[in-house]
Amino acid sequence: QVQVVESGGGLVQAGGSLRLSCAASGSIVSINAMDWYRQAPGKQRELVATMNKGGSTNYADSVKGRFTISRDNAKNTVYLQMNGLKPEDTAVYYCNADIRSIYASRLKNDDYWGQGTQVTVSS
User: Fold this and answer.
1) What does the alpha-carbon distance between residue 78 and residue 21 come to, in Å, rounded to a whole number?
2) What is the mean pLDDT of residues 98-102?
3) What would the mean pLDDT of 91-102 be, rounded to a whole number?
4) Contact (Cβ atoms closer than 8 angstroms) between residue 22 and residue 77
5) Is the pLDDT of residue 1 over 90?
6) CA–CA separation, 21 vs 36, rounded Å?
7) How far apart are CA 71 and CA 79, in angstroms?
8) Cβ–Cβ under 8 Å, residues 98 and 32
9) Share of the chain above pLDDT 70, in %
10) Structural contact between residues 100 and 109, judged by C-beta atoms closer than 8 angstroms
11) What's the N-to-C CA distance of the chain in angstroms?
């Protein structure tokens, strides 16, 4: 079994910072991309930032220059440092990981989602 768990959300004033963490655990063989998504009320889930195993990153235009994605491959953990937060960043933030694992003695490739963590930015 593989689990992906986010942490670090909360309430912050506009201009403030938060750091989200996402840890994957279980019978993991390797992890390719690890991504952060967010979903605001009444809106579709959108990709915020992504990092592959080699360290290449990509960001949504709305967060470029303010958010930084990083990962610790030894800990199977990805982080999202969010600076200069704006009220429009308010959303539930989800981690997604492309994981190769062992299940029933076989290799399995799948995407895993965390449960989400709420980020609320007050004006």
Assistant:
1) 6
2) 95
3) 97
4) yes
5) no
6) 10
7) 6
8) yes
9) 100
10) yes
11) 41
Residue with tokens 């689990």: 3
Q: How far apart are CA 29 and CA 45, in angstroms?
A: 28
Q: What is the predicted pLDDT for the residue at 16?
A: 98
The CA R_g of the chain, rounded to the nearest whole Å, is 15
105 DSSP 8-state letter: T
For 28-90, give the DSSP string: EEEEEEEEEEEE-TTS--EEEEEE-TT--EEE-TTTTTTEEEEEEGGGTEEEEEE-S--GGG-
> Which residues sit opposite 56 in a β-bridge?
none
Go through the chain and tell me how many residues it has: 123
Contact between 34 and 78 (Cβ < 8 Å): yes
The pair of structure tokens assigned to 5 is 């768990």
- Note the pLDDT tens digit of each residue in 25-77: 999 999 999 999 999 999 999 999 999 999 999 999 999 999 999 999 999 99
Whether 100 shows a pLDDT value over 90: the answer reads yes
